[in-house]
Amino acid sequence: MRKIFFLIIILVPLLSIAQKKQITLDDLYRKGTFRGEIIPGFAGETLDSVLQAANIKENNTKLPVEDYIASNDKKKVLIFTKRESIYRHSSKAYSYVYDLSTGKLQKIDTAKLLHPTFSPDGSKVVYVKDNNIYLYDVAANSIKAITTDGKWNYIINGNCDWVYEEEFSFTQAYQWSPKGNYIAYYRFDETNVKEYNMTMYDNAYNKDYRYKYPKAGEENSKVDIYIYDVNTGNKVKADYEQGDIYIPRIKWTTDDNSLVVFWMNRHQDELKLLLTNAQTGNSNTLYQEKNKYYIEITDDFQLLKDGKNYLFTSEMSGYNHIYLYSLDGKTKTQISKGNYEVTSINGVDETNKRVFYTMAYPRPMDRNLFVTDLAGKKTTQLTQGEAWHRVELNDRFTQFMDYRSDLNTPQTVTLNDIITDKKKTISIKPVKTLGENSKLKTKMNEYELGKAEFIRIPNSKGDTLNGWMLKPIQFDPSKKYPVLFCNYGGPGSQQVSNRFGAVSFWHQMLAEKGFILVSVDNTGTGYRGEEFKKKTYLQLGKYEIEDQIDAAKYIGNMPFVDKNNIGHWGWSYGGFMSSLAITKGNEVFTAAVAVAPVTNWRYYDNIYTERYMRTPRENPKGYDDNSPINFTDMIKGKYLIIHGTGDDNVHFQNSTQMITALVKSNIDFESGYYPNKNHGISGNSDNTTYHLWNKMTNWILENLGNDNTQKPAKPIKQQPKGF
After folding, report:
1. In the CATH hierarchy, which top-level class contains the domain 20-34+446-704?
2. Can you tell me the distance from the alpha carbon of 301 to that of 313, in angstroms, rounded to the nearest whole number?
């Protein structure tokens, strides 16, 4: 009896381990096994149920409502169906105006439209079609053309050209004034921008797709800002210095006659905010900033409702902080302070004169909510701990929803009151828990999952790098395990963050199979101050790959690491890093997977590339000394390169030119290409997503595994007909 008891004690934990499942690719890319719960924020009263109940019909057929925009008075709704993506941000759809009180449905145009928006009073709609801007009068059911010169690959009105959309992250290139008397819009003349062409493969003779893409050093669109008077039909052109410049934003003030035009030089190291008169187009400088490296554009700029002050963020102190300036330039106040980075402005409570914002604090990988008065004198931390707090405030700034997670813990959502006592001291009071991801946590408990840990790694320059490590399930320190670095590494990016999802379930699956997973944020990444981020200026790739090599050497000396099997995986900028790892890092990295990689910055767009590198003519060594395409002869290990042939962002050209260099150097390699797929290389209906991740997983198992890892799954062979 005693022996049986001891056998039970020994076997129970083993049985519990044996009962645990292992993650499969089906779990990740077909079943959606690890989907978390969605808790909506303070979106106000949504119209979803109203629109569904309305049973809106067109020609006696129910109209599928894919998405919608309500007018300010909530009396009308713009309804969109059959939405079609164009590039990363832009899309077009069939568009309708639906009157909630009468049930009347009006189709605006027979074609799919871009960017339909209501005027502030809801009486009109502006939209873009065929590179022109149109004004639709709802009551009269009439359309007026604001522009008529739009032409594909020549003139664009009201919509961004490709490079503005991708690098300045907006696509609707017009804005209504606050009272609706004016429409300010962009006009792009891309006549002299060079075309890039891609073959779109079909079952006949294929199609040649051409669009304007300005590569590093090449000519840009000429950009003009026009201000259209809705009442008179007149338009004026905003006055600013022309030439090789960018206009990365336009924003109306609270005054219907004043527009702020953001002007930036081509080097992107000088920014001017120009206060522009809507009637004349004349302007004067509201704000000017210069930087010895570059200035990044954000949407943090906002004018206060008092019409006298504006908030913005800047790195002028060496860290990203919030500033409050008056329009007359007499008052300049720094709101947030310290050797920490503000990551976002969450809201401005003008009634109580304070601003809420998120800071990368207490560590660069954490996020916490703070509030500071507009005098910049009193700061209160509202959320606590080493965690990732994503917050959403209500309109009155009396409550906020806290979406909290950490590296190993799924998101918990709580509702919190913001309390101000008689002494103006601010505190928070938890109200209730709105969601704890119970289903996901239960599901996770069914699987063999490891716990990732943060690590600190010294580099050879005297810096300490932040990283995380995920060890194999049932880790045995007496064994030696292969390591896979998962890296992006681009300017201002962050992969080593204390949030759930930073370590993905694909990472967990590889750990189940016996791999150590590592991610290290190298020099050039964000939230550690301007100097750390901008040290890579004019030489993208140099310090980044040196840090990855240093980290690989450091980890390779750990007693449980198989230093002869250290690999590197990355996508986009990460693919650039993986290609450098297998070339310049050939002494430590034995295998690399590069997905959609940049292989030479001469092939990439000019706004992004020149921000960090200037032009190839100005900085040829910066482009060539760290381009993996020039170092293929150094490769000793195994290399897999993957790309979508329809990638409009990082062109397939990058991989073809890399392969040309590999062939010339007589280097063996493996490749995979996905016809007509863009930078994301995805698709469920055609099995692309599953195929891609299955290919990479099996390649890693085959080329980086050792005796302590699982072998790749053997493909199921098709049987000949008749068997």
Report:
1. alpha beta
2. 7
